[in-house]
């Protein structure tokens, strides 16, 4: 059943999103420091890495939202089944 897995999944996804966001902030700081040192290669590499991390974050958010949608539909369906059984009694 999906509802038993929901909180564990969301906790894991939220932790991963937080870690990836922290890494992106670190990449921004490293890029700015490299720019101040007149290094033009490091910011380019940091941009590519940050872009990849942003895509991964977007996919994680999409997965979490689709899982939540399925979980809500499952709850609604089980509630309707329960209401039909109670009404038939």
What report would you give on this structure?
The chain has 89 residues and is mostly helical. It has one domain. It is built from two helices and no strands. Helix 1 packs antiparallel against helix 2. The longest helix is centred in the C-terminal third of the chain and has 48 residues. The protein starts with a helix and ends with a helix. The model has no long low-confidence stretch (mean pLDDT 86).
Output the number of helix runs: 2
Helical amount: over 70%
Number of strands: 0
Gyration radius, to the nearest Å? Answer: 21 Å
Largest sheet: none
Between the first and last Cα atoms, what is the distance in angstroms?
Answer: 26 Å
Question: Please, what is the average pLDDT?
Answer: 86
Secondary structure class reads: mainly alpha
Task: List its traits.
single chain; membrane; 89 residues; mainly alpha; 2 helices; transmembrane; DUF6755
Q: Could you give the topology of this structure?
A:
Elements: H1 2-36, H2 41-88
Quick overview of this protein structure:
This protein has helices at residues 2-36, 41-88. The chain has 89 residues and is mostly helical.
């Amino acid at each position: 059943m999906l509802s038993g897995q929901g909180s564990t999944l969301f906790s894991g996804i939220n932790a991963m999103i937080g870690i990836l966001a922290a890494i992106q902030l670190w990449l921004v700081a490293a890029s700015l420091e490299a720019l101040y040192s007149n290094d033009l290669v490091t910011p380019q590499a940091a941009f590519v890495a940050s872009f990849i991390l942003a895509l991964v974050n977007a996919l994680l958010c999409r997965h979490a939202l689709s899982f939540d949608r399925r979980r809500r539909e499952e709850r609604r369906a089980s509630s309707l089944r329960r209401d039909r059984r109670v009404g038939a009694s």
